[in-house]
Specification:
Layout (H helix, E strand, L loop, with lengths): L7 H6 L7 E4 L3 E5 L7 E7 L6 H7 L2 H17 L2 H4 L2 E3 L15 E5 L7
Antiparallel strand pairs: 1-2, 2-3, 3-5, 4-5
The structure holds guanosine-5'-monophosphate.
């Protein structure tokens, strides 16, 4: 699959589309989901052109990968979620019902999220 330069998250990275950016690092950004499924629903995406998790791990540098997961951890700390907990999800491809073809992790928290 070829990366689609016109996907919504590419436009958010290029600041062609507005989003409520919460945190940014050298290689990743975090912003609020437009249709939140929990009191805290943040999307974390790498700035590089990666479609999904396996694509990212296969092609990105270790620095990009570390930076990405560190940003998620910074969010966990900022929102004091270490004790209350949270859910991290990354939908991939057809069977995962991935809607936007740019890698993203959903960080959901702020209430008991129920069973998957
Ligand atoms: P997926 O189903 O691909 O895992 O999740 C895509 C997510 O992106 C959905 O939760 C959806 O609400 C969110 N989303 C779609 N379009 C936009 C947008 O333009 N801005 C923001 N902030 N989130 C979006």
């Amino acid at each position: 699959m070829i990366y689609d330069d016109n996907n919504i998250f590419a436009k958010i990275i290029n600041k062609k589309l507005f989003s409520e950016i919460i945190m940014e690092s050298e290689h990743a950004i975090a912003f609020n989901d437009i249709a939140p499924k929990a009191p805290i629903h943040i999307l974390i995406i790498p700035k590089g052109k990666y479609i999904k998790y396996d694509d990212f791990l296969n092609k990105a540098s270790k620095k990009e990968v570390y930076d990405f997961f560190l940003l998620i951890n910074r969010l966990v700390k900022t929102y004091n979620l270490e004790d209350t907990g949270y859910r991290l999800i990354s939908n991939a491809g057809n069977d995962g019902n991935q809607e936007v073809p740019h890698l993203h992790f959903h960080l959901l928290a702020g209430q008991n999220l129920g069973k998957m």
